[in-house]
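Schema walk-through. Below, the input block comes first and the output block second. Nothing else is stored per chain. Lengths vary across the set, and this one has 120 residues.
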Amino acid sequence: QVQLVESGGDLVQAGGSLRLSCAASGSIFGINAMGWYRQAPGKQRELVATVTSPGTTNYADSVKGRFTVSRDNAKNTVNLQMNSLKPEDTAVYYCYAHKGSWYSSAGDFWGQGTQVTVSS
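--- output ---
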């Protein structure tokens, strides 16, 4: 129903910056949140940052002050500006969108993931 296409993953030195982008297409009506999750080696997938249609943002404590999530509703895109990157940020980053009820995971949609690697 919803397709999410990610771009921007790369290898970067610690302290550097990357910008991830995700474009939503398909049956996009009703999307009320978009954002990013990540899965680091040996760890569970975790929320990085989300933004709801009204513009409310939510960040993981580990990225607050370094990452900024933004959503362009007109373009159906969500971006993640990542600054002051640390090796601990190394992970596969997944674009996320939610459609419909807040209480149903059936409304979750995922991109295929993009690799971010931060070297020391």
